[in-house]
Amino acid sequence: MKSLSLKIIGIVCVLVTLSACTPVKPWERGNLALPQMALETDVHEAALRNHAFHSKEGSNGGYGGGGGGCGCN
Amino acid sequence: MSKTLVNRLSLAALALPGLMQPAQAERSEETYNTGFQYGHYEESGDRMKVDVFELSAAAPIGKAFTASLDLIRDTMSGASPVFNVRDADGQVRQQISGASIVDQRDVVNVGFSYAMESVTLGLTGGVSGENDYLSRYFGTNLSWDLSKSTTLSASASYAFDDVFPVGRTYRKSKFNQQYLLGVTQVIDKNSLLQSNMTFGYNQGFLSDPYKQVFVENAVGSSILDDVRPDKKFQWAWLTRYARHFKDLNRAALHADYRFYVDDWGVVSHMVETSWDQPIADDWQLTPRFRYYTQYEANFYSAIFDGATIGRYHSSDYRLAGFGTLGGGIKLSKNFIMSGLIKDIKLQAAFDYFDRKASYQLGGNDSGGFDDYSFYMVTASVNVKF
After folding, report:
1. Distance from C-alpha of A50 to C-alpha of B338, rounded to nearest angstrom
2. Residue B154, helix vs strand vs coil
């Protein structure tokens, strides 16, 4: 029940956010294309960090698949 | 900005959701990319140390295909907690394995993507091997531009893992699957939002063969192997936000939040922020911060007794309740050229984290017997031809 409520809250949040968007013309998108605006500015460094965190924490996910398990201590 | 950089930013802008025209319907890599990354991870108290060496390459094939290869070698050494005991003063303390762990992990990852007008399809696969662990995995992903401002992402990945612990005669298997559904939205000309949900289902041998539990009984004590359920369902929801600040020398703020819950009882929250600040001459400085907190698994206890020991039991510090607080700084420099080599990027980063029971959201009264800290250093060079 708690999980279902959270999902509903999530969907509502996304819909509210999307409805608040401002149309952006193609020639206005230069700022969004800057390298520092990439959601993952360095995929290899991010993968290394996520692997370290995942090995030492009880949770993972959100970033997508790719990569297998390990016998990490 | 140089003309080359302007040209490159224009091309990058075209790769944003919905910007590709049919006549330019490709989103494959336009350069040959190669990279080397070194990483070092080290825990306090002479525990685990890991060195990471990674070689990567990606190449365009024709107008629409991109192939990539990634080779990683981790060398691990040090000690790790096995179980917890109560000392003569009645305090809980960790029983460490001794500096006996020496292992090497070799990874080969391959990737292949095909870009169409508004859809990009990807296939990935790989093998990761250690002297006591083997993982084989593959996955597929899809990116679909629904409109000029909205991109839908979906992926499925599968891993077939075998564990054959040192000192034991058995070989056990597990199968992990994970599915992702996400949306990336241009909010306005300065901000982006991404929201991903992943669903994971793991089945098979999910216990840790190197962990044990200590059981106190009225007539003495005993040590049992770590035993966990053979199924785990996971749900994670990650939201990422990026905002550009033109007046602050084109700096970018990044903020991520992830909520996680699984049916072992672990619930976690993660917040990560960074400030990507261009300085001058293509130098960039990025301070960053991360906070993680989790609540313990249903079958976790530091020490068990006759009343608390059950069918499933673990004292693994990774299933305990705790928080981790830390951050660091990353420095990078780009050299943009116009010859055979088009771009060289150098990067170095240092991060330090403190993992404490008392950092758990809402507090934790376990006393901090399993607290430790760790740091990570990375350095990399990437070249585009």
Report:
1. 34
2. strand
Q: What is the DSSP string of B45-61?
A: TT--EEEEEEEEEEEEE
For Cα atoms B219, B223, B227, give the angle at the middle one, nearest 5 degrees.
125
H-helix or E-strand containing A31? none
Distance CA(B123)–CA(B128), nearest Å, equals 17
Strands B101-115 and B92-96: unpaired
Amino acid at B101: I
- Report the alpha-carbon distance of residue A18 to residue B258 in Å, rounded: 19
> How far apart are alpha carbons B220 and B97 in whole angstroms?
23
Amino acid at B324: T
Q: What is the pLDDT of residues B336-385, one digit of tens each?
A: 998 899 999 999 999 999 999 999 999 988 889 999 999 999 999 999 99
Radius of gyration of chain B (CA): 24
Question: What is residue B308's three-state secondary structure?
Answer: coil
Answer whether B215's CB lies under 8 Å from B221's CB. yes
Comparing alpha-carbon positions, the chain A residue that sits nearest to B139 is A66
* Cross-chain residue pair B250–A32, CB shorter than 8 Å: no
**Concatenated DSSP letters of B229-257:** -SEEEEEEEEEEEEEEEGGGTTEEEEEEE
Cα–Cα dist B364/B362, whole Å: 7
Q: How many CB atoms lie within 10 A of CB B76?
A: 21
**Which tens digit of pLDDT belongs to each residue from B305-329?**
988 999 999 999 999 999 999 999 9
Task: Name B283's bridge partners.
Answer: B333
DSSP lists the bridge partners of residue B90 as none
Query: How many helices (DSSP H) and strands (DSSP E) are in chain B?
Result: 1, 21
Closest CA relative to residue A71, chosen from B276, B184, B129 = B129
Sequence-ordered list of residues with C-beta below 8 angstroms from that of B301, at least 6 positions apart, any chain: B213, B308, B313, B315
Structure tokens at B184: 């990336």
Please name the residues between 2 and 61 in chain A that touch chain B, using a CB distance below 8 Å. 3, 6, 10, 14, 17-18, 20-24, 26, 28-39, 41-42, 44-45, 48-49, 52-53, 56-61
Q: Between A and B, how many CB-CB pairs are < 8 A?
A: 226
The partner residue sitting opposite B159, judged by closest CB among A17, A24, A69, is A69
DSSP secondary structure code for residue B314 in this structure:
B
- pTM for this one? 0.89
Which is it for strands B212-217 and B304-305: parallel, antiparallel or unpaired? parallel
CA distances from A25 to B149, B222, B316, B335 (A): 10, 69, 52, 30
Give this complex's ipTM: 0.89
